Amino acid sequence: MYTRLSAFYLFYFLAAGVYFPFVSLFYKDLGFSGEQIGLLGALAPLAGIALGPVWGYLADQRGWRLPLLRWSLLLAALGASLLLLPRSFGPVALVVGLVALCLSPAIPLADATTLEWVKRTGWPATYGKVRLWGAMGFILGGLAGGRLFTLASVHLLFGVYGVLLLGPFAAALAIPARRGIGRARPRGQGHALSLLRHPVLGPFYLCSFLAHVTTASYNGFFSLYMRSLGAGSQQIGLAIAVGSVSELPVMWYSGRLIARFGARSVVLAALCLYTARWGLLALIHDPLLATASQCLNGPTFGAFYVAGVTFVDSHVPADLRATGQSLYNAATFGLAAITGSLIFGYLLDHGGVFRMYGIASAVCAAATALLALLVRDRAATTAPDG
User: What is the spatial distance between Cα 375 and Cα 28, in angstroms, rounded to a whole number?
Assistant: First the structure.
């Protein structure tokens, strides 16, 4: 099971590593403005907000976790190939939105399956040790994409992405629907609204939302930032790879860090480093220094991701595990990503990349303060009823 789950993350993020660092370059080559790029970047998160709770309900209460995971990947792979054809904004937005709808349940369902398997089996691997294979895939994808789009047109991006998505689809087919994994559970410990009203999870979702608003400045516009510094596609791919390499030791030792300091403390430390990271990008004007700053990606994104998912999992009941992760994903990679894409797309056009990262640093500092003040890691594993 460890091998199959690890293969899923490896192949999924291999595809993501080829796609996400270069999609803004693809949009720019089509002549889209920063605001249009921001709007396209908001479509995938919007899909997560609109359907995330629905996927979570169907996975938890109907036992459809693995079927949903498999169908989402297959339909996204087929849909991505359609973007080999359109070049105007309307058709591109339509196809990007359809692919986003298909992919929206993939990672919350995979995370819920992995966390449940780790807890039920007591296997020595932590969630972080499984998830680090995703970081390795992203490294390979970033390097391969940088090389590929130096030699070939970036307009091939979506065709390549569609083919690569067949990898995680095949891995998902190999994950068995064992008892207790992806099966329906009896209701009675609460529902989605109870998670939002939870005295710990509610504030945590809010602070995570604010923090992830700032990551949109990186996810959507870092490649354009690097290009503005004079970097080419291959150097952009190298910078992405450096960031992904920095995640590996963090994810490998994340279990020990969380066991010793607690998930809340790890998230808080990651937020402090995020504030510093965005501040550095606001000041750096050299692509080599910007590449070096990518060493902070592990202690920021890697630590926050693993600790955040673990924090949520430790405060939800077993029958709402997929729902809890879907809500967290909707808040962070959904609503926050939409808000951030629109805000930072506007700032890119009207303030430039350096001001954009300066504002990101300030917002992240506010999120850090709110987390320190509002979130107390109480000893709770269930959400209240009602």
Answer: 40
